Amino acid sequence: MSVRIGTRGSKLALAQTSTVCKKLSALGIGVEQVIITTEGDTTTGVPLHEIGGQGVFVRALDDAILAGHIDCAVHSMKDIPAFRPGGLVTAAVLRRDSAADFLAYKGSLDAVKVIGTSSTRRRAQLLRHYPDISIVDIRGNVDTRIRKLSEGEYDAIMLAEAGLTRLGIRIAGERFPPEKFVPAPNQGTIAVVSRADPSLMEELSSLDHPETRTDVAIERAVMETLGGGCFTPLGVYCCKGHLIAEVLSLGGERTERIETDVQSLEQAREKGRQLHARAKDLIDDAYRKLGILT
After folding, report:
1. Of residues 62, 71, 79, 101, which has the active-site annotation?
2. Model pTM score
3. What are the chain's domains?
């Protein structure tokens, strides 16, 4: 009997699912790929925060698992919301790829004046370092964004380096190290979500990378304590227990940041509470300006 694996239909989602399928097949586990269309794929004309944030890429796949149409789904883990439906588990977290952002551009960085990104975090971090540039919303898959760059709609676009690597894309630009441009929580990580079936979970657990699972669990603990979601410019990154987290103003003028070693999820939550206390006005302001609060 094959494991039915759900995925979005984008090239990146299919590449990530192919990685999971190959790993399971190498273990003698049969697989069947099922493409699911999500609201995030069909609604591309507005910023993500206006249609519910990164979670819009996950909901349809969650529903398909719970309805029994598929057994599990492959996600970029950064897209998975903090609060999850009952009956679902993160059965496997693969070894993390690069967590860094990548600024793709042609010519000289000094000539870049207009950058495309739909991320409030990337917008704020770019404005912090380059206050004179213009940031313009951009949606669409990686190919679409690169095409818009090549057609001159933008001088540069910000992408996840891991996505480029998984797609085998080499493009001119600059890698921004995660210690400087703190990435979204769990960026660069592939996760497999399944129904809470012990036999299925046991099969999928063979893909799990314990060190990565620990690091991303720490990041999610901080994220959940901070709140704010995709509405607030925030970055959280943990590597072998070394945690960096920051919350920024929407325009990048101010940053509240912590950097420390953590040894447990409770320590991570405490650091998240400390950062939340310092950055509460920034979080509230982001919600207010984006029209989330009345």
Report:
1. 79
2. 0.89
3. 1-95+189-208 (3.40.190.10), 101-176 (3.40.190.10), 209-289 (3.30.160.40)
